[in-house]
Amino acid sequence: MFGIGGFELFLILIFGFLIFGPDKLPQIANTIGRAIAKFRTAQEDMKGQLNMESFMDKESDEPFKNPLEVIETAADQAKSASEAARAKADEATDKVIEHTESFAERKARYDRERKARKEAEARAREAAEAEAQAKAEADPRTDVPSKTAMPAEEAGSGEERASEAVRGADAGSASKEVS
Questions:
Q1: Is 58 part of any domain?
Q2: 95 part of a folded domain
């Protein structure tokens, strides 16, 4: 038992009697025995649990595997997945770096786009004006304003209209003299 001979066991018992006394020694031995028994049962339960669940692959040809090999295989798989993810991340980073532009480059690009847009709008406006002018030249009657009848209340009497015309003519000649 633990490589202890009879003489060593006798010395331990003598020191136990001296330290704890003859009354407490049986209780201490009983407590130590129970602790060792619980430790052994826990050890056996843990050993059985590990053998049955952790290292048993029911679908495999070899149901019991070496746990170190399982751990190494999982580590290798994780390492290869990590390297693949790192390569993808590096590739994406390189693409981002290639496509980034400085503030000055972005501003110059926006200015070019804005200039092209304004030129296209100006060409469209000129085309619309040219089309309207061509249409007006083809049909001269569209430039003549149409006469509409005014209600009698708005038109007023003939004398009022004549006096307004004279006033308008006087104002026009006075503005010419001032300038």
A1: no
A2: no
- Look at the block and give the residue holding tokens 């209209």: 161
Q: Which residues of 80-100 are buried (b: 16+ CB within 10 A; e: fewer)?
A: eeeeeeeeeeeeeeeeeeeee
Whether 73 is in a domain gets the answer no
Domain count within the chain: 1
Integer Cα distance of 63 and 57 in angstroms: 5
- Taking the C-alpha atoms of residue 167 and residue 165, their distance in angstroms, rounded to an integer, is 5
Contact by Cβ (8 Å): 55, 65: yes
pTM of the model: 0.27
In tens, the pLDDT along 122-178 reads 999 999 999 988 888 887 665 555 556 555 555 555 555 555 655 655 555 545 555
